[in-house]
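User: ok so my PI wants both of these folded by tonight, can you help

Assistant: No problem, let's get them done. Here's the first:
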Amino acid sequence: MELHQLRYFVAAAEAGTISRAAERCRVAQPSLSQQIRKLEDGLGVRLFDRLGRGVELTPEGRAFLPRARRILAEVRHAAEDIRRDGDEGAGRLAIGAIPTMAPYLLPPVISPLREAFSRCEISIREDLTEALLEAVADRELDLAVVSTPADHPGIEAEVIGSEALLVAAPAAWSPGASEGVSDAWLRERPIVSLHEMHCLGRQIGGFCASRGLAAGLQCRTAQLATVLEMVGLGLGVSLVPEMAARADTSGARAYLRVRGGEPKRAIALARRSDRALPRPAIALAGLLRSGMAGAGRGEDGVGKG
């Protein structure tokens, strides 16, 4: 028994002739007749008496008609429910982000995402890059916001933007909002950094090594908030993401660019290359792309303190 056979049967029962049923279903009359016969063969009963140019339901046909209509209605309702679930984002969306991006990128996009997909249960996981990539690969996460490199079998990382790493310094140490800082200036000051378990910590370490600043690395911490607090207390300077600088309104720190080629980090969305994203995940990716584009056009917050 196939759905199109049920549709043809109901159409013939309602139309009273095979020819009108074929017109209604937009199929050739012989094809419709053949499918009804197959339906009868499958059920083991005759559904119609053929009366000249018309057809009439047999007792078995009259008994089967409401059942066929109910089956077709259930299928139609199921299709409508699936489309509605998709429109409303019914289900669960699992998002991951590294700790140096999650507080700045995710909160602004969660509210509009919830408004657009009222039935979507949103789960957020903040973790290190390697753990997030494993979770995406294991289908525990639909999407993860990370920095490159994001190398993992079966994972594709779409770079949606980049941001500068700025020098965070105690406000009293700032040489001026527009001057920026030189390598020589940095060498004269202790450097506070994230631990290298964070990709940002590895990026900072790589920058310091390339500029001959490694000797100044005197403290490593596990949290970006701790780095900023130590800088504010005058214990050293650090490299921090520009998004963190934008969010800092305390006035305890100044944020300055590095002369001679400032360091940057890429911002990427990691997903399984063989998995179709649910609609809420597609919408989230769009919101993050728009947010990155807007941040690129806004004020950079450099030199504030």
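One down. Here's the second:
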Amino acid sequence: MAYTTPLTLAHARHLLRRSGFGATLDAAQKLLEDFPTRGLAADHLLDFEPTKFKPGGRYIDQIHNKWVKYMIRTKRQLQEKLVLFWHDHFATSYEKVGDVKLLAEQNRLFRLHCKGNFQTLIKAINKDPAMMEFLDTVRNRKEIPNENYARELLEIFCLGVNDPEGNPNYEQEDIVQIARAFTGWDYDKQTAYLDEDEHDQGDAIEEWDPARGPKVIFKNLGGFNDINGQSFDAGANWADEIDNVIEIVFSHRYNGPAGDRFTVADYIARKLITFFAHPDPDPGFVIDVVDASGFAGSWSIESLLRQIFINDGFYHSALPPGVDTRKSVKWPVDYVVGTLRMLGMKLKSKYQYVDGGSELDVMTQLTNMGQILFQPPSVFGWDWETAWLSSSTMLARYGFARDLTGARGGNGKTSFRADRLVDLSLSDPGDVVDAVTTLLGVNDQITAAERDALIIYLTDGPPAGTSIDLDGDETLRQRKLNGLVATVLQSPIYQLH
């Protein structure tokens, strides 16, 4: 039933906004006209061949700004939203990697695998040079195994510390054993290879050092019911061990109210729902999309996303704010890129700066909002939701809105032109407010009192009984109409999905 559920205009706009960056009314109306059901609309958004784009440049600010520019102009918005998600999930920072080329290649890797097979993506990350630098695979040698990648593989990338019932998913010994599989891996010219002399082959390293025993994981946890553990030993084919580990991890199971379930499937589904729909999704939402998509087995990210985009739970967050409505705070990059796309604007020059107000470049704008692409704060990525909001980061968002609406120096797309966005023949202040809030996608989200407050701002008077002349009064248009757009961009509701 969910696949054939008719799409409404509000839901079409919500789907575009969450699967991309912003959503104009025209785009939502076209989606609804061409693909009138949830399933058809989801199929359309997922029907793209991933591009091979990678942001070029010698310096970190260059690849940062080129990725932002690509987000602003791309027709594959869902692709870039997924690349952003995987960049956070497999958080890798320039602060440690120190190599722009490696990060650019990783960015392309995310793009190529963004909606494909999740197990294949994990196996690719195993051998990704940027990740190998960031989590010390290149410093993992048989004499002194480094556990960093093994730990994050379980804790962040695949399982989580605990299952949904609060039970541990793995033990320290599992991390120790997995680290053995990754000993000896290195890369040359961005290609990973195994140095077998540095790989733990299971024998004694020195005469005084005993053999480390069988290469097994999950003796006690994971639902395998095998006290001997799951062997990832590949014999003399040492390079296969890191793939063997992944296949065992993907077989990990937990038991809950819905029965015996694959841990990886529910863990990743929950995180994708949180990113695309809303925080703290109900267990039923997670179980429904995993089971309906066949994700636990096929590992098809595309199939999982399709089920997320047609589920009732996804569209519940389209409702106006309320006690029972779960909203998400827009990520800074979503706020910036989405706003530019909805206003039909772009950033100026190779430095990608806003052509108005403070004229700050986009990297500085995003830094002030708390997000620098290619530099997540830790291996856990960015903190989401209310962690994006502080007095300083909100002031940065307000400043960005001010700068955008103050960019009036030219006639191109780097300039803000309210006359291209709002019908200047409108004379009723309420109609003007409705036009601006519809333009920015919050007309069905604001309260009557908030609408009245915007009318009062526009007219400097009561919310009714006043007429305005936007077409003939240039001062009013430059001061109040532009200010009205900025005010909505700075409003609490515009910070939310």
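The chain has a mean pLDDT of 95. The radius of gyration is 25 Å. Good luck tonight!
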